[in-house]
Amino acid sequence: MPKELDLKELGNRLRMVDNHLVTILAQRMELAKQVEEYKREHHESLIRLAVEDQRIESAKALAKTKGLNANFIAAFQYLIMAEACRVEIFQMQDEPELKEQELSPEQLKENLLALTKEIAPLYDQNYGLDFFATRSYLSFEDSVISREIGTLKALGMLDSAIDLGCATGKVSFKLAESFQRVVGYDISPEMIGEARNNLQKAGAPNNIEFKVADIEESIPEESNSVSLVVMSLGTAGDILNLRQALARIKRILKPNGRLILSFYNSSALLYRCWFFPWQVSLAASINQTKHCLDVRLKERVFSIYARPYSVSEIKKLLNQAGFEKPTLSTYPTISAILPNEFFGEESMQNLISDIDHQLAGLESGAYTLAITRKGT
């Protein structure tokens, strides 16, 4: 039955629209910064009155087709453009030197370490919780990991599991519920510090430990010693030399051991559409202009290294590395392109999640989750 439109429900709808309007304006100001960079690089005038006047006239014309007061819309548009000019001027003053559009891998790794140092203490309380598509993906990933744990349990292979890029250890703690030994590795000392704090809060179970390690350099485990390796939440795309990393993972896996890898999907509907006039409901997404990953944390955005892969590229890499029977799914497709304000109602969350699950085999989701195994 549809809800009765009482004042409470109408207030909820007004709140959703108002929130969406604010996020649209935030996106508008982000575009203003990009406009300022372009104008500076190409030595164009910051203020272009003829262009601004035409934009106001276009807004007035559209307002009439929507039954809105054209003068009100013109005033609103003028205020938006005035604020955009203020944003452009402040950026020009604060950043007189243009940033390089494409950052080097070394710079991006430095950004990653700077990001993790800053956010580690608040990571569990903040990262992704405000973004529905990210929460939905984490739930999807969790179900896949549970399924593979069940497979290994049936094979009697619950001795050792490794969580690569473990951050504060959420996946590691899940693995420790089933495996006799779990090790979480991360390049960030601050993330490992938080993971160890979480370990103490959990009563310091003796089957789990956390270590600082750069898996670009080594994975300090014995050959043929691990039943499951997990790289979650797009972590596999953070690796510069993925072929080398896959060889290291294959070395440590036992025969018939499982590997779960999460990538950013270059064929996602999110990236095929190129641009949306709103902020999508993902905490992290590929910046196709700067060729990096933009990670959103509250009001800040950090750019770090990440390479998106297509499903076919991942299959080829896994086959060439000698892994067997790779199966891949992508998720989420629809929620990844919608604004966060779209998901205010639980019924809408459930509906879109159901659709995303049905689309998981169509190679259009924001993340690709690959499950494969080492031969016997």
TrEMBL record:
The keyword Ligase does not apply. SMART domains: CM_2. GO terms for biological process: chorismate metabolic process; methylation. Keywords: Methyltransferase, Transferase. The keyword Isomerase does not apply. GO terms for molecular function: chorismate mutase activity; methyltransferase activity. Residues 1-92 form the Chorismate mutase domain. It comes from Candidatus Nealsonbacteria bacterium RIFCSPLOWO2_01_FULL_43_32. This is Chorismate mutase domain-containing protein.
